[in-house]
Write a sequence for this structure.
């Protein structure tokens, strides 16, 4: 008995977590996938009816808006965060005396809840009393800044707040990457008389390719999961103008009582996440095992 | 520090160099303002009276500092029908976060220890499954989880939320500890085995005393995640067990009565304080958690 | 008395990869067994198998007469010193040494007594309250030895314990380990890739390659009568000269012809080894090629050789020549008159040469 225990103790210790992950992650994914193929409404049904939920989903204008928004939001959020993050990282890498303090300031939004971020920006962007009023107060009487209530522009306020929250983190990632470049290579380039900007463009940035990838994965993942920020900042409105798949799914699941739609939209979200994350994780794990 | 930035080419004139340097600091300063602006606005607004907010300027410092909004936010603000402020929800969050952080960190440490130092067939598959689990959008587990919590009789309760946070935090805590423990040489556990120490003895006497840095990372990461969580909170709580993020959202978006922006801001700061404090006190570990969660080394 | 360590038909696989193949080794009480071979030859895996840290896939393993094949490391009555020393970083030196006893429930007084004895023996008394991080490489090495000594085990296992030390310290510690072995009369198994360590320490050497034992023997046997080309090449520094040659054997003697780049082949006549095949590789240690009359070999034959390179090394001078298409090194005395580009008369000690079959690499004589 004790011999058996001694040999199998590691497995015994791992077992609860293993079962938990199996059931609560993979089992639940299967459950959701299953339900997404049924006619479930308020309560789940388990008779498979094919892809009707997906047909409904793709026919729904609100889902169309949500996917469109995800594309706009995702692209802008990822691109601007990366550019801004890289730029700030390079600027901070120039022997700035107050680097520690500046880094702290750039990164603190990452510690905040998206709900807090949303609340703050909602107030700042408030058309009546916020930034608009301030700028008008400076004498620009005709200045208008009502993106928050403009169905065509509201999605950009989410982009703005999300970048504010996450770009500091991207900066930290890139800064760590800049610092990890082999200094001998940089010295060699200096000895060869290569100007500083060329050292960046030709040596340092290309060698940071894995960091670009990591930053991209993290940001894409954040974008697809974005839910709290939209809820706090616009509530998905005006109308459904700033709906994202995550808010669509939530609305279907908890306010509309349409479990079939919720399940199918969740599956689409997972599909999007996995097409981005799986190849990345796969290559990471493989590289480690070699 | 990449130290080559100091020696810019000699041909550049001195004034140009100083000018560039100034420009650099100006740009960095402007961005610092961009990041600080919302915090500044939040703080100043929370210290103004509603009257001053309506007539005054968003960016202006309060003419008259008042803590009324803070008092209201803490104990009187309305979340829907109840008007007890954020106080009860703040404590809900504490009651959820503390046990969930401790349990998930402990389990993650054990898992990481097994995966890194007691390799058996399938240990790597377990780790890969865990890792993929970190990345699923939680929407995909929301519906079945709501039902399972019901079956378990903990739907809408604080233990229910603790359970959910432990389950979905495990992937990250396991990842942290696994990545930390693989850097500890295998010879150390071999030496302990020859010395006669068993599975738990090696963990308690050898590994745990070495783990302080990664425990800090894991605790901070989990605390930030759980404290800031909204999706699970809004999905699996009922009135009375809601975490502070949900309460804050309810206060801000309640449509009854006059909009009290100062109260909103005070409530938002209260909700942000614990994680901000953690960030200020242990920023180094906070960043390490963020990067460890994204770049696996 | 039963052998202290007896390994029979041991196999070790990782999945379908065979790491160790049919290992058979046996040593007596007081033996110092050295497992030597290039990296990846399986020597460390074999040591881990002996320790019980790696399960074996086939065969049996006995320590002091007990079948230990499936016994866990703590019950094998062994102690082990690791390459990285594997000191517990959060414990003091004293705690490191007593940890094993503490786990076993040895009472505190005995722990202290044994600790003091070992500390005195290794002269690490002033270090007892320090942590491993505060010690130098040599000091860590001593503590690791102390941790093993305090066990007073049936068998000591060493996994390349000196490879992390600098060259000078390595030689000192080597001597100390040898002294310790002689004083304790303990049985030891020692893994190294350094053939000089193997030669100086061992009472018995196992040369391994690709998970297969190439030769087992005393240092002298291994050095003088290598079983195959691999052992011949691996053991000894500078390595044994392995020169392709043509043989004409008759009942009297073997006439051995070694081709040269310039001039007629060198012809040596070996009267001891007859019946050699036509093609051989002849193995001559550098010290068995000397100036005539300088070292008295039993059966020497002289030849005129063209010297290419002269390498003074202090105590000796090495000269390099071209024979049979190979560089051939001879170890001459320090004040030799040999000069590059000049001919030098050299004596070959045929009493000590080895012959190998070129196809199989196996020893012929």
């Amino acid at each position: 008995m004790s011999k058996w225990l001694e040999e199998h103790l590691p497995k015994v210790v791992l077992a609860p977590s293993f079962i938990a992950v199996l059931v609560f992650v993979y089992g639940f994914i299967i459950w959701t996938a299953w339900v997404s193929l049924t006619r479930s409404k308020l309560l789940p049904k388990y008779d498979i009816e094919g892809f009707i939920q997906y047909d409904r989903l793709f026919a729904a204008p609100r889902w169309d808006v949500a996917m469109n928004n995800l594309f706009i939001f995702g692209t802008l959020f990822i691109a601007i965060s990366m550019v801004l993050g890289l730029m700030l990282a390079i600027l901070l890498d120039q022997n700035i005396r107050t680097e520690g303090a500046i880094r702290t300031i750039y990164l603190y939004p990452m510690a905040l809840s998206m709900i807090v971020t949303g609340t703050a920006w909602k107030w700042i962007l408030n058309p009546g009393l916020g930034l608009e009023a301030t700028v008008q107060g400076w004498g620009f009487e005709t200045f208008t800044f009502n993106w928050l209530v403009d169905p065509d522009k509201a999605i950009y306020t989410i982009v703005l707040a999300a970048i504010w929250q996450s770009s500091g983190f991207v900066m930290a990632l890139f800064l760590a990457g800049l610092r990890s470049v082999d200094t001998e290579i940089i010295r060699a380039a200096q000895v060869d008389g290569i100007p500083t900007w060329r050292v960046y463009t030709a040596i340092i940035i290309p060698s940071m390719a894995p960091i670009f990838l990591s930053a991209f994965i993290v940001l894409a993942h954040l974008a697809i999961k974005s839910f709290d920020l939209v809820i706090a900042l616009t509530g998905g409105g005006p109308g459904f103008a700033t709906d994202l798949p995550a808010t669509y799914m939530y609305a279907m699941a908890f306010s509309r009582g349409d479990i079939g739609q919720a399940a199918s939209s969740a599956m689409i979200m997972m599909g999007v996440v996995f097409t981005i994350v799986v190849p990345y994780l796969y290559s990471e794990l493989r590289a480690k095992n070699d | 520090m990449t130290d080559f930035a100091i020696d810019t080419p000699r041909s550049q004139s001195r004034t140009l160099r100083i000018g560039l340097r100034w420009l650099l600091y100006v740009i960095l300063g402007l961005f610092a303002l961009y990041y600080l602006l919302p915090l500044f606005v939040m703080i100043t607004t929370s210290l103004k009276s509603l009257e001053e907010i309506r007539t005054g300027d968003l960016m202006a410092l309060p003419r008259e500092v008042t803590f009324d909004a803070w008092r209201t936010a803490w104990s009187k603000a309305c979340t829907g029908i109840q008007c007890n402020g954020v106080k009860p929800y703040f404590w809900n969050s504490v009651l959820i976060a503390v046990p969930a952080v401790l349990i998930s960190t402990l389990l993650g440490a054990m898992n990481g220890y097994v995966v890194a130092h007691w390799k058996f067939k399938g240990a790597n598959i377990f780790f890969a499954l865990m890792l993929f689990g970190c990345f699923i959008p939680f929407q995909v587990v929301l519906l079945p989880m709501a039902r399972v919590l019901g079956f378990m009789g903990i739907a809408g309760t604080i233990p229910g939320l603790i359970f959910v946070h432990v389950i979905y935090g495990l992937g990250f805590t396991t990842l942290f500890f696994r990545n930390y423990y693989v850097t500890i040489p295998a010879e150390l556990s071999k030496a302990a085995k020859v010395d006669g120490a068993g599975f738990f003895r090696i963990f308690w006497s050898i590994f745990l005393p070495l783990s302080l840095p990664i425990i800090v990372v894991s605790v901070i990461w989990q605390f930030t995640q759980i404290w800031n969580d909204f999706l699970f909170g809004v999905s699996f709580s009922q009135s009375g067990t809601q975490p502070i993020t949900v309460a804050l959202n309810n206060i801000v978006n309640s449509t009854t009565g006059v909009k009290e922006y100062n109260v909103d801001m005070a409530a938002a700061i209260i909700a942000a304080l614990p994680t901000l404090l953690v960030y200020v006190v242990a920023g180094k570990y906070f960043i390490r958690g963020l990067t460890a969660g994204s770049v696996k080394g | 008395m039963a052998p202290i360590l007896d390994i029979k038909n041991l196999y070790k696989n990782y999945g379908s990869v065979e790491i160790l193949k049919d290992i058979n080794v046996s040593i007596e009480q007081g033996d110092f067994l050295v497992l030597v071979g290039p990296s990846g030859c399986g020597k460390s895996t074999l040591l881990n198998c002996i320790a019980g840290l790696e399960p074996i896939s086939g065969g049996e393993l006995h320590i002091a007469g007990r079948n230990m094949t499936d016994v866990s490391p703590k019950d094998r009555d062994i102690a082990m010193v690791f390459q990285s020393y594997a000191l517990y970083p959060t414990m003091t030196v004293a705690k490191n040494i007593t940890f094993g006893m503490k786990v076993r429930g040895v009472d505190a007084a005995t722990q202290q007594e044994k600790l003091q004895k070992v500390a005195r023996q290794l002269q690490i008394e002033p270090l007892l309250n320090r942590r491993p991080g505060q010690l130098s490489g040599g000091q860590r090495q001593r503590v690791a030895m102390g941790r093993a000594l305090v066990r007073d085990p049936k068998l000591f296992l060493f996994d390349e314990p000196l490879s992390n030390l600098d060259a000078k310290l390595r030689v000192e510690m080597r001597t100390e380990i040898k002294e310790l072995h002689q004083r304790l009369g303990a049985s030891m198994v020692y893994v190294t890739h350094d053939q000089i360590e193997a030669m100086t320490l061992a009472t018995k050497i196992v040369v391994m390659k690709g998970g297969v034992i190439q030769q087992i023997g005393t240092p002298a046997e291994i050095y003088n009568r290598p079983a195959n080309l691999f052992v011949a090449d691996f053991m000894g520094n500078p390595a044994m000269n392995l020169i392709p040659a043509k043989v004409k054997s008759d009942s009297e003697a073997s006439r051995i012809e070694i081709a040269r780049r310039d001039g007629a082949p060198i012809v040596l006549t070996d009267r001891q080894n007859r019946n050699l095949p036509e093609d051989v590789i002849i193995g001559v240690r550098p010290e068995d090629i000397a100036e005539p009359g300088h070292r008295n070999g039993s059966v020497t034959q002289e030849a005129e050789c063209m010297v290419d390179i002269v390498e003074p090394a202090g105590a000796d001078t090495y000269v390099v020549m071209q024979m049979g298409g190979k560089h051939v090194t001879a170890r001459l005395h320090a004040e030799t008159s040999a000069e590059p580009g000049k001919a030098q008369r050299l004596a070959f000690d045929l009493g000590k040469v080895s012959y190998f079959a070129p196809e199989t690499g196996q020893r012929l004589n």
User: Anything to note?
Assistant: Chain C touches chain B through 24 residues (CB under 8 Å). The two ends of chain C are 34 Å apart (CA to CA). The longest strand of chain C covers residues 300-312. Chain C is about 25% helix and 35% strand.
